Amino acid sequence: MTDAPLLSVLVPAYEYAEGVERILQALEPLSPDVELLIFDDSPAPDMAGLIEAHASRWPDLRYRHNPSALGGPLGAGNNWNALLDAARGRYCLLMHHDEMPLGREFCSRLRAALTDRTAPEVLLLDVVLLDGALRPLRRHVPAWLRWSVVRYAPGYLFRRNVIGPTASLVVRREHFPRFDPSLRWLIDVELYVRLCRAGLRWQRLAGLEVGSIQRSDGTITASLSGELHRIDAAERVALRPRFPRDRLWLGAPVGGALRAVEQVLWLSLRVVERAWTRLVRLKPRS
């Protein structure tokens, strides 16, 4: 392809071929103006067969096994940045192997939104949490809360990641910040805060959904395991000088009382949300 693709779908893979295959199947059939890049940081290149099986149906697919091509794994943040640097599309969507597009019209609706003459620099997609059997559990957070934080209080993301996974954002390539590889736990929300404050045009495409599979293995959370509390605390301290206006949500001691009030409000919101979800499920169809 000589012209730049409309969209680059970027998949950082690590020892979870099942998740990569699920993404491939959910995206097919794909328009020829969409490219797919899979950079595999796994010790062994066990996804090569899977990629070969799908290659004939993808006009623009690139797979790289980092340890074989580069002499060693890159690590999560560097792998994500390598995908962004290699992307050629006008827009980028970074989708991890425990995420997936939802709905048969996902690609066609996304393409229509990106080709509209009023297309924004950042498109915010809805997030649905899924169990291991891919059954919907609930929405990540209410849409009004996500949108309010993005527009008015991005620093709150350091307290609650209400945006969700990276797959919920489609960003014009030249505006997609690079991840800070020195971070492990707050690596995505730190980027989100910078992106929210970059003065870009955002748009929420209601009903266009990505699923986030709530797995206990193969995730960053699982890999950090018992170190999570220590790593989270250390990263918050390190980020305070860079984000002085967000010290409250980064855990500065002076904000303890306000965070306690926020915790009560957050738990109350969750209770109301769960009750509403049960009510809607039990409501008889007319």
Automatic annotation (TrEMBL):
Which residue range or ranges hold the Glycosyltransferase 2-like domain? 8-113
Per the record, the coiled-coil ranges are none
Pfam families referenced in this protein's UniProt entry, alphabetically: Glycos_transf_2 (PF00535)
InterPro entries hit by this protein: Glyco_trans_2-like, Nucleotide-diphossugar_trans
Q: Which domain of life is it from?
A: Bacteria
Q: Which residues cross the membrane?
A: none
Give the protein's recorded name.
Answer: Glycosyltransferase family 2 protein
Q: Which organism is this entry from?
A: Acidimangrovimonas pyrenivorans
